[in-house]
Amino acid sequence: MNVGLNKKATLTAAIQRLDEGFYKKKLLPQKTIKAAYAAGFITRGDIWLDMLNARNLSSPMYNEAQALLLEQKIRLSYADVLRLLIQTP
Question: What pLDDT digit, counting tens, does each position of 26-48 carry?
Fold first, then answer.
């Protein structure tokens, strides 16, 4: 089961959209998320930071129980904030 790759690609694309939408210079992903939250572009900054942390931890993930937990977080928490980002003009 390779849950991490799809989530990592989605989160990376979301971070790039935030970065391109608000800032001319490149910021670190964590700073981009915090700045986007402060500017009101995203809500639930805590979930965005949790997604970033999960992305970083999922790259070397080989434990199926951890992968299943991550998949559950994607469905129950992360998907909603990603949908909000997609709906933002």
Answer: 668 888 888 889 988 888 999 99
